[in-house]
Design goal:
This protein is an alpha+beta fold. The protein contains four helices and four strands. Strand 2 and strand 3 form a beta hairpin. The chain is globular, with a radius of gyration of 14 Å.
Length: 99
Amino acid sequence: MLFLVISSPRPERPSEVARARQSFWPWIGAYQASGVCRHIYPRVGRGAIAVFDVAGNEDLHRILNEWADIIPAEFETHPLVDLDATRRLLAAQVAAKKE
């Protein structure tokens, strides 16, 4: 099952480590090599947008919960079942960020 995952940095005390972690997803290379992460689009200092291919919602949340302990970020997940709806969601989010 495909999921769109959008990460956004959580506010915390500024530090070099926090800034680095906000734009870096650990172990992403291994997930890409295994086919779990199909695409990732880093947004430097603003998290990332990725497409994951996992068996189900539980598998995706297990991965993201492990990462949430390491990366100061929040994750939004959206099943990719309707490509038109997903395009509209992304366009709305991009427009909202530009305002």
